[in-house]
Every structure is written in C-alpha cells, then in structure tokens.
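Exercise 7.
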Amino acid sequence: MNEPATQLPEQVSGRETNFTHERTYSDLKSSHKGFKQAAERVLSVNNWHEYSGGGLARFTLTNNLGDELFGFAAEGFYISIDLPGPGPDAGDGLEWVMIEKIRMEGSAETAEEYLTMTVRPVPDPRKTSLEVAHFFNDMSTSTFIVRRDGRVVGAGAHGRNESPNNEDVDLHDKIRNTTIALLARVGLSGAQWQKLVTGLIEYKGK
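Solution. The predicted structure, written as tokens, is:
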C-alpha cells in the first residue's frame, strides 16, 4: 500500500502547514468504523462547518458551473469558501478551490487504510474570468487525509506551496489576498483547520 504522504504535492516554495489529530480505539473493529465515519466526513464538504463546531468559514460543494451539490465530494467538483469579511472580487465574495485528486486504499482486513483529498485554488466557475479566486495562488494546495494504522485513526490538513495570490488580480484583491495570506501565515487560519481535523475524528453529532 502507498503511504498517504506520497499523495502530498511536493513542497517547492511558499509555506508548508500541517494540522493533525488522532484517536486510539480499543479494537480493530471499532477503529475501522471510526475510519469509515471520518472518511465520509471528509467527503461531506457541506457539513464541514458543523464538524468544526461552527468554525469561521463555510464550505459548499458545487459542480463546474458553481451550482450547489449535495452528497459526497468527487474529483472535478468545486468547493466555495465563504470567509468572514470582504471576499475577493474575482470570486464575487467567495474563495474557490477544485478537488483535483481523491485516493482511497485499504479495508477492514488490512493493517492500514486511508483516504486523501487534494484541492487547489481556481477561478470562479460561474465566471469567464481566468483570475484565481482565492487568497493563495494556484501553486498552493490543501490535502485532507484520514488514516487508520491498526487501532489508531488520524486526520490531517496539509498545506503545500502556500503563497499570496497577488499577481494578475485587481488592486483590491492584491491588497486583500496579501493581507489574508499574511494572517494565515501567522497562524490565524490554523485554528479553522485544527478544529476541522479534530471534528473529523471526534464529531458526535446532535
């Protein structure tokens, strides 16, 4: 089986971030069940806000026209992200990423199993503009991983090549994107991702 880490894009430039959480179960049957639940939560993008305990950002799964979708994420689908405060002009107030890769390996019968999902900033699919609608540029990626290793189930959000999207955008977006990227650099976005990866494992529902 390939290691989940091999699914991460190579870190070349900009910032690298890693947020993780894990839980040890009493037996293999319960750990497999915990993994399956966490994997389904990764793919249930519209519920990420709930799993995060009411985090600041709201995530919506859409098709390639920007229309909301219900159900599980798949390669080629988009995610809109609504952050507090003014959004980018390029996305009419929303950040946009596309799901470019999903991989799943293993089963209840194997010692390990994992799910990875990688997303990348893209232009707003509702518009013809080629401007990337995100505060990071399109070299940046976020990869979400859920993994079971024996009785241990872990989740992670891993950013690679995170750099401000301040080229080929209008002045407002250049200032806004640089500012938000700098805030992310000092760790303010880390709270959102840490809440999410913890929720992927620990969420109890209502």
